[in-house]
Amino acid sequence: MQYWAAATDLVSQNLSQGVFMGIDDKSIFLAKSLRLVGIIGVLLGVGTVLWSTLLYIQNHEFSVYTTYLSDVGATPGWPQVIFNSGMLVISPVRYLFLVLLVLRLAHLGAGRAFSVSALTVGLLVVIGSIGLSAVPHSLGLKIHKMSAFLYFFGVVILQTLIAGQEFRRRLALVLPLSSLAVVAVYLIFAVLLSLIGKIEGITRNTPVIWEWLAFCSLMVWLIVHSIFLGDERTTK
Fold first, then answer.
1. Environment class of residue 63 by beta-carbon count within 10 Å: exposed (0-12), middle (13-18) or buried (19+)?
2. pTM > 0.90
């Protein structure tokens, strides 16, 4: 809650002070900060998944069609340590990126209602992400599943909000399209995950590839938004 309170106060102060007028020193700093945090997020995300997966495949069979990311995080030893530690570190970085993104969109005309909604949903997403990392399914399956649903459905709502603002602000089409791509992939994975064992033909392995695609789509989204909104000249 401290993250949320601080973030909403920051947005309110900037909006009330009217600092988001044209390209000035503050907007340049904001854009550069967003790009830097985005790059850090991508490096941490890709590095964590790649490193822990390489450790995992040394002693286990691996396939993007049968091995969940959470399987890597639940494997005792270095795969679990690297994956879960990395994901816990990434969580506050993700929220910082969201705060900077909300401020950047506010600079481009987004209102307070969007800012508060995005930061609130984003906080729930972070809580879900922390739950996934702190409690592997091998330790607490029920908590892990609840965290997964909170995280994945939360991302769907958050990215829908962001895409809507990007369309309204008439930003470069690649921005809302990358947001909607995340929405589509995350929604498919979350729905398939919730239907395991409830509909014939949907087995434990059915959603696996979609989890990997969800991770890849989020990394692409981070890169795209870091490039375009990390450029202070971007106005539409």
1. exposed
2. no
